[in-house]
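Question:
When you can, review this sequence-structure pair and walk me through the tokens.
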Amino acid sequence: GRVTADAGIDIDNIIIDGSTITSDTHLNLDIVGDLRIDVDGAEVKLADGGTEFGILYKTGDNFAIFSSVSNGDLLFQGNDGGSTITALTLDMSDAGSATFNNSIFVPNNGVAIGSSNDQAFNFNVTGFSKFQSDSGSTVDTNGQILITGVGSGVDAQISMVTASNGRKTYVDDSDTNTLRFSGGNGKNHSS
């Protein structure tokens, strides 16, 4: 039957007192089935020595992970061949900037950066494309690369700016889309 003990219960190194379970060492849960945590407050708070460092909670219909420490980053870590690696860091001191430890692979529809597709940088690849910049620059593709000036009178251009001059290759929208090459001496050469 039920045991009532208003002063708490001591079981080996575990103390149960009211809504608090205390252990002076590790506490293991060994369960044959699943572990279900059902909290009507919708928050699971994580603390170390009484100091909260994270919260798992429900906001609307969404599941949220919250890093409670001011400017404390959110790290996604794993085991890579026996070594602990940080696969992804979300920098909370920089509004959540994401730093990936290695490559980013995006299948199917490519990458869109911006508030909408119309204002975004879209990179949609069906074949092989490569953009590389080390000591030099490489553009390698099995299709075509389109650089478009959006709007009337807007030139599409590739530019390299140095301390003393600017060099660019551009399509002059005001002159029947003439291809021009411009160097630091200001001379233009029409195609």
Summary: The CA atoms of residues 55 and 66 lie 5 Å apart. DSSP finds no helices and 17 strands in the chain. The two ends are 95 Å apart (CA to CA).
